[in-house]
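Revision sheet: structure tokens.
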Amino acid sequence: MKKAVVLLSGGLDSATTLYIAKSRGYKVNCLVFDYGQRHRREIEAAKKIARLALCPLEVLKINFPWQGSSLLDHKMSIPWGKKISKGIPSTYVPARNTVFLSFALSCAEVAGASTIFIGANALDYSGYPDCRPGFYHAFNRLSEVATKCGLEKKPIKVETPLINLKKSEIITLGLKLGVPYKATWSCYEGGSRPCGRCDSCILREKGFSEANAEDPALSATKSMADVATK
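Predicted:
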């Protein structure tokens, strides 16, 4: 059976990507990064999604000691508003996907996996440079020249199945595949309920609205909040 490594963050896009890889017949290993982000909600979400998908998961702890992002530095504020930030927002973690994919490439080569899946998206996204097609074309070229299997003409390929899809299209596809969106977490904050004001929450709300679907994660967190106040 063909093998793949899926980068799983616990969010909507990576969960959909995991189910796409499974639908294509891959035996999947999930790789989750604990990189000092503001909260652990997304890590716990990733663990639950992997369990529901019946896929093994490895949490890799790394560190960005220089920080440089509001997702890492608690002294920096998460940008809030009802419109997506213009330019590259403070939530951008410098070279994060380059770092993640480098680990994934090493993992995939050892595991004998032919493919790495990542849920990058270049349409409904926050403008991160490492979510654009050109970056992945360049990384695939790197894979060809930087690995033993690449030199043997069997390079590991990075697949970005969501790269040209709107958020609503991702959600529609995910619902068909049975993605457990109730278990996902997208908010940059780590409270009991999504803040509804950060870029990630805005994009998620817009996606479910345009897909004419209810976000099951909102009803789930609302129920949890109601129980906590009783």
